[in-house]
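[scheduler] slot 2 assigned
[scheduler] job type: sequence-to-structure, two independent chains
[scheduler] chain ordering preserved from manifest
[runner] begin chain α
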Amino acid sequence: MIYFDNSATTQLYPQALDTFVKVSQQVYGNPSSLHKLGTVADRLLQQSRQQVADLLKVSPQEIFFTSGGTEGDNWIVKGTAIEKKGFGRHIITTMIEHPAVSKSMQQLEQLGFDVTYLEVDERGLISVADLKDAIREDTILVSIIAVNNEVGAVQPIQEIGDVLVDYPTIHFHIDAVQAVTEFDNLIPHPRVDFLVLSAHKFHGPRGVGIVYKKQGRRLAPLLTGGGQESGQRSTTENIAGIAATAKALRMTLEARETSKENEGQIKDHIRQFLSSYDNVQIYSQEDGAAHILCFALQDVRGEVMVHALEEENIIISTTSACSSKKGELPATLEAMHVPAKWSKCAVRLSFGEGNTLAEADQFIQVFKQLHEKFKVIQK
């Protein structure tokens, strides 16, 4: 089987799974408990926090563990709104955010907040000038997806950070769930206040996320109760999942350069092949994320292409795993002004460090066969 759906989820590293199993069996105390089993669990929790902090080159007091990217994005967007509502009710984001952010924004609009949605160009990129023009005296948050999950557009985080240096009271949040291997530093600009990661996107377990929260930035908690995670995220910590996440992140970053080069070669190889067809549109730019390639074959709906490839043991997805079963048109392609007749045909290939050029060649051979088969539909 060829697995080209790594943006939806990745295969768990065997070493991370081994860590998860061992910790589950051997470190079963509650880290909030005072007895020795609790002490052992808390020690492992803090060691994992330190390891993640070292990888992000930040303080361990700035690392918080959640249940995943969706919780992290919800916490930062809504937590900022709650904490800073007395200072302003204006938020800036983009038209191509993950639903964890876009739907949170919609909720806040219902509560009286004013949200500016920045448009994108045909590449899926915002204009930094537009962002600067959108800033108001009552702006409290700028929330930007670093790497778009549908087409792989890499937003100009450096330039955005440079702009926001002049606005120190505005929270700057980036959704970096798809960006773990994209930037040389996981926190790509010192002006970034909040960053969200999700373990199952980098070969860690499902159900664990990481939030970087810069020291000195205030954020209202969404989960209250026992006061875990320094009172910011109450609930008993998933020690086994957190330890496995720390290991998976370390392994992913150690392999980052070689895996990014490999994924880029696969993307370029398939992209060059697809570009030879007049009835194929490609929506992922050459300078976008190395691991994401989005395209559409004219008049062949995305779900049809997904299942046709699945029959040949090639696993891909429509543009977003979170919306694929809902039959929704891709929000990013809509924002890029791609006509519905094309966007409904879009699919996404997403590569991981285990994929090979031989698999790319096999995909190409199968696509050639399917292209001939689908000519009947296109007539």
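[runner] end chain α
[runner] begin chain β
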Amino acid sequence: MQPNILLITVDQMRGDCLHYLGHPVIQTPNLDNLARNGATYTNAYTATPSCIPARAAIMTGMKQENHGRVGYQDKVPWNYEHTIAGEFAAAGYHTQCVGKMHVYPTRNLCGFHNVVLHDGYMHYNRDRSKTSPLSWWDQCDDYVNWLRERAGSNVDIMDNGLDCNASTVARPWHLDESLHPTNWAVTQSIDFLRRRDPSKPFFLWTSFVRPHPPLDPPQAFLDLYDGIELPQPPIGDWADQSDSSRSGLNPTTGRGIVHERMRQKALAAYYALITHIDHQIGRLLNALFEYGVQNNTIILFTSDHGELMGDHLLYKKILPYEGSAKVPFILNDPTGTLGLKSGKLVDDVIELQDIMPTLLHAAAVPIPGSVDGMSVIPLAQPEANTAKWRAYIHGEHSFGELSSHYLTDGKRKYIWFSQTGEEQLFDLERDPQELRNIAGIEQHGELLELWRGRLISELNGREEGYSDGSRLIVGQTPVNVLSHLISSDLH
């Protein structure tokens, strides 16, 4: 039988938040062990650092210019011909997603046989001015209904007073730990192992909502980090440190000077959520053993994007800096059939579009021609040949005046802000925290020209008019969704 495939994703976890990669504080024992016995990709990025476009890359294996989502926009239908779940289902796999999908319509299966859904707090579904008090959202979210069956019909995910996007306010989870969304995702994943068709291999996507805010870890995990010395955020020489509008006083801020005790508490809670997830992953791994599938289940762990968490006085995601755009990426193969070198650190630059072809390759399932990504399996083999691997990735995100594009090969990063024309260039080998913008330094002029030329080529022909093939054009109107996706939804 073909191997089982377990895709584990988290929401908003930074790429540096693994003890295995040298983080000075965080505890991730189960992920460390998966990495120790598998391969870790140290230059893994999300091309579009927010939930919806990042998940489009995971589900379709496409570049953002092809899947069409280049910014954050809800309520755009998902009608892709080829999805990762659809391809596995067509190949005879029993498929299930547990947790966050963030697609539209909300209960769209996107090729899965079944989805047990919890997207977290969805603003467009939670607008009670447009729905009845017992809204359709309340009825369609599986976690909320499960929670109310156990904790009371009036319980809601907003009861702890934390905003769903707050990066600066934290408090412990207010109910029993077993009722936390992280535990629920594993409980439901284990239940799938009980209910699955044993005559078929399975593709299970366990999709955690945390460590995305609210920052609400169970008390035991918060205690691991609360009150100890935590890393100070990097502040680049280019960062705006004035905060004249006092944006840091907004608990859902994207930038600003936040009260230091509040920042420390938020960081402690963020780390605690990650360790909580790690422990629950350990619970899921134990269930694989108990159901007799541990040795025949290939595991891929990653995140949809990161979290700036105060880097350069910035919060949340979307922007192209390392804290936001870089993600963890671990491939573990207990079957031994992929030929991975145990413990290998792969520094070739990869992206979320590579997940679909990697997992299809692992299962010997044909990869559709619509897929832009490539399997990362050969990069982790003992005699890896990277001659045909990509030279760099292109990322972007529409975000008003801060709309940006970036290119990186994991060693250098070039950023262009399309509305202002500002350029940044970072030497990530010497300056991994992006403290020094070298774009304006004369001795790096040739390097700047090289990377600018690459972006000119990448954007040539794009509908927004960012490039005419010879120069970048500043001030063109950014869009969140490219027209070919919208037009395809009309037919």
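[runner] end chain β
[qc] chain β: The chain has two domains: 4-386, 398-485.
[scheduler] slot 2 released
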